[in-house]
Amino acid sequence: MACNIKALSLNHQILSGATAERKMGTASAANVHVVPETVSKTLPALTTLTIKAPQPERLLIKTVDRKEINNGKFGRFGGKYVPETLMSCLGKLEAEFNLVLHDSEFQEELTTALRDYVGRETPLYFAQRLTDHYKNSRGEGPEIYLKREDLSHGGAHKINNAIAQAMIAKRMGRKTIVAATGAGQHGVATAAACAKLSLECTIFMGATDMEKQASNVLLMKLLGAQVESVEGTFKEASSQAIREWVGNLETSYYLTGTVVGPHPCPSMVREFQSVIGKETRRQAMEKWGGKPDVLVACIGSGSNALGLFHEFINDEDVKLIGVEAAGFGLDSGKHSATLARGDVGVYHGAMSYLLQDEEGQILGPHSIGVGLEYPGVGPEVSFLKETGRAEFHSATDQEAIDAYRRLCKLEGIFPALEASHALAFLEKLCPTLANGTKVVVNISGRGDKDSDIVFQYKPHSMT
Fold first, then answer.
1. How many CB atoms are closer than 10 A to CB 330?
2. One domain, residues 236 and 317
3. Which of 290, 350, 426, 441 is the most exposed, fewest CB within 10 Å of its CB?
4. Would you put residue 68 in left (φ > 0), alpha (ψ -120 to 50) or beta?
5. Above pLDDT 70, what percent of the chain?
6. What is the CATH number of the domain that holds 180?
7. Distance from CA of residue 354 to its chain's centroid?
């Protein structure tokens, strides 16, 4: 059975948001109505795109293969909700991606870049004082380790993916890279990769984010990137970057830093970030001769979380915990907790959980961690929620600020406010864990970029 999706043609169809019927598991077909985020007077007329209705979700796949089944679908999530114009371009990208996964020359070049340029491997650091902080009155508690992605070149995990995709773009003969960034970490990583590989680079960034992350804007410009201001935040910047790419498909390359968008984009980003989990497994074996018991990561769209989680998805004895941004509180309407408060719909070319109203209009997200301000999550993250393989919680702005300050004082480490949400959940998690439980928290980025925000923060009443 097919369903009609009303969308804007060419450069606006991929930018649509949609509310899927709330009862997608029923016998009736899912009625997905795509509503444009904004309608420009210069855009083409409306058209209708017919696609197959989404299938009911699958049970958790016991053996996860690197090649996603069903054209990039994770159960009912993911796919390619794009105009026909983009299908050929995405097909070429998928073919190149599959090729480089088995190309020894590419893999050797990437391994060298990750080691000598990015600075991998990053340490798995035992946080002794943080561990002591969470011990109970009997001196018992979990052992806390930090995966130090903040020590990567550029100050975040984003460079792992940026350098790999920039290499792919160059192989495909593309001369210009376009990207969108929120907190600026993906922008810095992309600009650095483009400088290294002699590629032109344009970064789109929300005007409000540029004010909050002025230091990263300066770094992008110093690296030779052109930084374009977009009214709004990361979601508007993403839409504009995609429009720019769609208008120059033969010469430009859209370098996504998140695990969202049409296939193969989510799988590519996750694959290149999975080095985090692979290193963690090896380092854990070296340090204590086993696997971690619990993995914790913040959740914006999900790239750093999947980078840590993916290696352990088939290890059912390893608990996976994602922590979203609760902002002013889950009931405040000012948060980025998509998995806690969202519904299933289509946005930026894929089906996933989204923050949207009853009419399918995308809601504006909020988080003190700018990199978490996105109204959706990746399809694979959505699948992990629906199958129950991972559990998801949230932390407020205040809790993230407290966690930021706590790690500074106890360990001498500045965590990004995004990663501070994962650290904040330790307050609730640690008292529930047995003595000696091995917990790994992904410190996805460094927090010197957020120091002004932390100093100027004033508590917000959630009543």
1. 16
2. no
3. 290
4. beta
5. 84
6. 3.40.50.1100
7. 14
